[in-house]
Amino acid sequence: MATKIPAAQNRLMKNAVVCKVCKHRMRLDNLKILSGKAKCRKCKSKDFRPVRKK
Ligand SMILES: [Zn+2]
To answer: pTM here?
Structure first.
């Protein structure tokens, strides 16, 4: 999307998640999400989904 460099794009997409509540997009550690330690910076929600949907 934003970049044409495959490696950079991969790195950007890797840990990208979207908050299910406020749709805020950010990068988070997968481990943190799974262990429930991740919180949305905007609404403090713990509900996330991966960015890549299709
Ligand atoms: Zn949120």
So the answer is: 0.69
- How remote is the CA of residue 36 from the centroid of ligand 1, in Å? 14
> Ligand 1: distance of its center to the CA of 42 in Å?
5
7, 13, 36, 35: which is closest to 25 by C-alpha?
13
What whole-number distance in Å separates Cα of residue 12 and Cα of residue 29?
12
Q: How many residues are recorded in the chain?
A: 54
- Which is nearest to 16 in space by CA: 4, 35, 33? 33
pLDDT of 28-54, one tens digit each?
888 888 898 999 999 999 999 988 766
What is the chain's Cα-based Rg? Answer: 12
